[in-house]
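Write out this protein's structure.
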Amino acid sequence: MGIVNVTPDSFSDGGEALTPEAAQHKAAHLIEAGADLLDIGAVSTRPGAPDVPVEEELQRLLPALRSIRKAFPDVPISVDTFRGEVARIALEEGADWINDISGGAFDPTLWEVIAHYRVSYVLMHIQGTPQTMQQNPTYTNVVQEVWEYFIEKTQQLRQLGIEDIVIDPGFGFGKTIAHNYALFRALPHFVEMGYPLLVGISRKSMLWRVLQSTPKEVLWASTALHWQALLWGVHILRVHDPAPVRQLLQLLPTWNFSA
């Protein structure tokens, strides 16, 4: 899953794809590098990011979505939003998936839209909101609590007739570095839930803070963790840099080969 942020303030690539032309160029680069699926986001959800009105989100999103959909009619497109109205309009404009950081908690109409359109839905775990999530994230047992969250939320979704569910532990969304690595080590546990599992660690602070680096200088570390995630059975990697992941996927079938 290649990331297209049409935002001025995302943590590592804000401002790179603000026009429809720039967004289409970004999408073309991601696809050429090996992305199978694009994820377009028009609201930054980095820690402390300000809220954006729905009108502004749509003004950013729709020109990019239309441009990318027209240029790449066969590439699945996910829209990263937690708002029901934005999701509805995006799906009408050709989006295929909805990627929701809030697990339906920020807008109760979102799940109604997903149920109506019967599209793939990424259910992510978050503690708090982007404005508050990193102030003091606290868990008794982060793995157990995220596991229970998915059990509860997937049951609620299935009661609404929503079956095409992808789960995402939400690395960096209301978690300390220690929480993030506890969840990463538990990825095989989440694979066992039986839902496709999405991992989004690309350029995140759980890498660059540990390495005392910057978001754009942790490609090797990202690739190493992506390889481990694939070996554990993770289904989708949400990335800024698809080329190394494409190489990993090409190598994966030979990993257990015995000469």
